[in-house]
Protein 1
Amino acid sequence: MFPWLAMGHLTPYLHLSNKLSERGHKISFFAPTKTISKLEYLNLHPHLISFVPLVVPYVDGLPLGVETMSDIPPSTAHFFPVAFHRLQNQVEYLLHHLKPDFVFYDFAGWIPALTRPLGIKSIHHFIVSAASWDNWLGGFKAGSVLYCAFGSERVLRKDQFQELVLGFELTAMPFFVALKPPAGAMTVDEALSEGFEERVCGRGVVHRGWVQQPQILAHPSVGYFVSHCEFVSLWESLMNDCQIVLIPNIKEQYLNAMILSGDLKVAVEVKRREEDGWFTKEGVRSAVKAVMDE
């Protein structure tokens, strides 16, 4: 584990370490020497989680002896990334010695260049977005937020992308959408129809990257899940209390949707044209409203 050296990053990384240790994984946790004492009480598995001390290099402009962003006044904070960058030699030496299977990192973008020649896999685990996309959800009452995601491979056409998010707007509900940019658009922002973000400001978010779906579905504010009905999403939705709306895309997903909406009657599928599978914003709104009926 090699998080950014700030308590708001070190602590979540230690929580993750505890979860992984529950499954028997052995973890070396990189942290500044004096800061380790502030983290030890959070280590629930000291027989599996070992702290590895780092000596933060001195950088002209920083107070002497600083180890984390928490030690630095705002006026000199811009010097700390320089010190963090200069940890590369220490980290490389430790990786040669420890030979881990994986390295988790967030701000140290140079980690993959160190791990690749050593045959070590690097995992970019970025906790800032998780803390943010949690603060936002916490602003709404229980079971009121609609969440939509179609996985890492599904790419909608631009016109269908727009119909989908416009359908969420029509529900008048708060919503959180995590989708890849559609075909024909370089970014999600480019794909949104004119005025959309201004109209849904405060109650609607279209996220541009990867999210922690199990944690989102388990959040008390999330009450509805619009899914493409791929197997993993299918099980994640059934393991939580949210109502399910389905928009399948390929054969396997259509079969899953038939089981959930037909045999099990635990979901509603968005109506589509038979000839080309087109769905409308009104169809999206109708499906969501149908699962809201107690």
Protein 2
Amino acid sequence: MFVDLFFLFAIILLAVISYFTGPPPGIPPGRWGIPFIGCLPKSSETVFQHIENLRKEYGDIFHVKMGSRLFVVLSEYNIVKTAFTNPNLQGRPDFYSLGVYRNFENKGLVFSEGSKWHNVRRFTLRHLRDFGMGKSSMDVTVQDEAKALVMDLEKNCEDPIELTLSLNCAVINVLWQLVAGCRYDVTDERMTYILKLTNDDFNDIQGNIMILDMFPALIPLVPRFIKDKYMKLDTMEAGVAIGREFYMEIIQEHQSTLDPENPRDYIDTFLMEINAHQDDPDSDYTLENLLVSLDDLFAAGSETSSSTLRWFVLYMALNPHIQEKVQRIIDEVVPQDRLPSIDDRDSLQYLEAVIHEVHRKSSLVAFGVYHRATQTTKINNYKIPKDTIVMQNTAHIHNDKAFWEKPDEFYPEHFIGENGRCLTKKDGFLPFSIGRRACLGETLARITLFIFAAALLQKFKISPPDGEILTTEPIDNPLLNQVKPYKIVLTKRF
């Protein structure tokens, strides 16, 4: 009798919990899952497969509850375009893993929100442009870094090699000269170490610590030794400390040599703004905000473009007929005694289309950088409750047959218009996201990718090692579609 009553009570309790924790009325269709747990991926499926299976069942806008977090997934380009211009969808989720890197404060450029994000982003864009971002004056800087990378790669021609962190270093040097007024040799040991830590950070935030992102109620309950041993919290914190030491050395050097009449770079202008607002306790311009902003710029600037270039080299090795076509065009346009420049872009439209197709096929940030609803709002007449996490299903949109003639193929002609020119803006294309929180470094990234890709194809034939089969299957990470490590053979063309 007692057991029967106990089970009856348990059933009633679960029914009550399910009722009060069920999906709010008016939200998009989807999967709520079981109380407290939600609808997590099965052990046999990746996050990408989980989302794609739900999309097939519920359509281009659906909800899924994972842990205690409510997600709304947007899998159609026009829905994303509308949603990400909505002022109520410009927040960021308060994920524990990301909070570690900003001292759990609303600071920086990528994961901040509200007026603090808006003010510092606007300041950063203005001053990076003042120092050359997106301007033709950057051409020589990017060429110099491409040349340094080519010279480093020439040391190992004819042998199977992986693209090392010298690629990341050459890429970050372009941005870092605007930010900090300095560059590093592509083989600099300390910079290589910092870049490795940055890469490790991207892996760590996609690891077991995501459990605390999905179940924030567990944060105060999970013992510290569990967080360290199984979630690498101690490793993450150590990485943050090393990064901050690196940035502080640069800041202190700038402080000691600052000339307010002649600011040299972004750090100088930020320090001047700190000094101008030092009596304002609510100022957005603080040393802490500068540190987090530098970390955001460094991480995004080094990892995203270098990962895209790794995908580019892989696709060139896998598509020799496309590689040869680009090289023929480069040879017709650019003399062998100089590297391609941004002035050659008009004559190298096919290369531009190839780079765009690499963006499409790789879909590097597969779900974009997550947005959060700061107020209850509507998308396509569906209710989006406050604090819902909204994500763009970039990988699906980049394979949507409504926009792409041959979505399963590597087909640069997707981006060639009737006039033979590259379609730099195209519906269904979201490599840098869209709307108010689109990537602030897009113009610099486009220039860097173009010159680096052109330089690599001008100087080298890219081939798979004999007998080795290359794959475009990405690393099984829930956030970034990073390419699996691979080896290629570079052969000097001249």
Protein 3
Amino acid sequence: MESTGFRKGNMVTMLSIDGGGIRGIIPGTLLGFLESKLQALDGPDARIADYFDVIAGTSTGGLVTTMLTAPNTDNRPVYAAKDITNFYLEHSPEIFPQHSRKSFVNSIKSMFGQAGGPKYDGEYLRSLTNGLLGDLTLKQTLTNVVIPSFDIKLLQPVIFSTTDAKLNDLKNARLADVCIGTSAAPTFFPAHYFETKDAEGNSRSFNLIDGGVAANNPTMMAISQIWKEILMQNTDDDRIKPLEHSKRMLVLSLGTGAAKHTQKYSAAAASKWGLRDWLYDKGATPLLDVYGDASSDMVDFHVSTLFQALDCKNNYLRIQVRTK
């Protein structure tokens, strides 16, 4: 998609997919159902990428985003949404292993110098993504994508997008590198280093870890990218205020599931915890639960409030599965 279409009068459709490791199977299942309904309306060749101007994803959500938007030799998505579930069932035990007691305890030991390196070497993920995506780059996606990661050297978020890649070759990273970078969960996978180059021989280096550090729920980040695009495309005499343009957005935000921790923790118990207890307590991971849920829920709170304030709350739908 060469033109973004983020101009006055146009409705902008956006899909956002949270991070969550193996739980990427949840949005994959939802998207498979949605795509089947779209195919019932428009024929068997319809794909998710045909209906969204922007697809954003963090970590495992970034992998799903790429699968939905990377082109095959026929310039159609490499994966139909219905195939994502089988992809996770086949590969997730090697790519996104669940946080077992053994693996998490080993991660704690690593932090205290009792063991070295991440739990997994990441070779399976590297091999899989390189084999699937080859040398495809961000600017080749079939619709606009937004995939966050975090540069551990610069200590700042890095937002990969199709729009930026088309404007600057140094931001036109290989999709395989973007997927590996946004999925490089600390203690479980190694940080990912790569470089980009432009026609003049300039280079840019990236030292990336999991995008969930910056935005586990990338919805607000994607909206901000759309606002930036609006400001860039419109002249001073014909510029729409970004907030007003939000009335012309249709946003579908998919979570990857979250356990409902009602009464699971208490101030009485937490007041006695040290570092190790916050990291691992009787099979639970309090610190990860707090940071992960808080990050995603705060984004949902802000986006929901934004659309309600603009009197267009029906333009935003958040789907999050919560289990007891």
Protein 4
Amino acid sequence: MSVKSPTPKFAEETRDTLIQEALELFARHGYAGTSIDRIAEKVSMTKGAVYYYFSSKKEVLIACYQLQAQWVAEAVGAVPETDNPWDDTLRLCDTFLDFVVSNGRHTMPLQEVITFLGWETWRDIDSSYTMGTLARTISRLQDGGWLKPYPRNLLNSMIYGVLVEAAINLASSPDDYTLQDMKTLIADFLGGMRA
């Protein structure tokens, strides 16, 4: 007797549920503390059924981080554009940090994601989501003469690096830095690049 493959719609819904539940486990217990067995148990599936959708735990992590990056990109992308790209950029940075603080318990720490995915995989995923919004904002600033004439790719990398470092610090040392401290520091950092 052959086993039927799930319908495409059911398979997609099941995969989405697996990702959401695995993300919750990774956020709560970390990558090392979350096994495929634990994910399978959480979604009332067998380990083999999980492997039908994902070939490895790392592949599950990639899918989870893609979902997390999508959430961040949606939050940042919802910042309305005005005629003042400088203020828009500051609001975008603030929104990024607000997301980190308000969703910290429901998302995976960036330092752990980078450790287990590796820098290049993490960077590729982020480039497809949040970094795209930042790159458009930097382009607006440069095209409008708001920033010194640094190479655009360097600006994108440096500003995003500051945001990521701020997010890691807020998540790992919540008692050492306040959200407002980080927002002020980033505004000052950007101000140093203003034309």
